[in-house]
Design goal:
The protein contains three helices and no strands. By secondary structure, the protein is an all-alpha fold. The termini are far apart.
Length: 123
């Protein structure tokens, strides 16, 4: 009686390795897919969060600038001493210096109401 030839495809080692690969390969591929999907989801959420934060910050900056703009318009329209600063200081140097000090004091007093007003000065 003749024995059938033992091939590599009929061995126990091949069957175990093939069975393990048939089980593990889809699991590893699914793990890789879920990792890439998770990376994309987190990246999109971070992008959305940063976009929302920038929009909120820009809204606050715009509101602050609008408040300062309205303050400066009101200040320029109501303050009567600004025309003294527009003239040459040689005409009345004492009046010019007093008005400059007065305007500086006005800005310093109003800085508590407008925090962005720290950077304004009068020529």
């Amino acid at each position: 009686m003749r024995k059938p030839p033992i091939t590599i495809f009929n061995s126990l080692r091949f069957k175990l390795i093939t069975g393990l690969m048939l089980i593990m390969l889809p699991l590893v591929l699914f793990l890789i897919y879920t990792n890439f999907y998770s990376i994309q989801v987190v990246r999109n959420q971070v992008t959305q969060s940063n976009s929302n934060m920038i929009s909120l910050y820009m809204g606050l900056v715009d509101k602050s600038l609008a408040d300062i703009d309205s303050y400066l318009l009101k200040y320029a329209s109501e303050e009567t001493g600004l025309h003294v600063l527009d003239r040459s200081p040689e005409i009345d140097i004492d009046l010019y210096k007093m008005e400059r000090i007065w305007q500086f004091k006005q800005l310093v007093n109003n800085v508590t109401y407008y925090s962005g007003l720290d950077y304004f000065f009068i020529y």
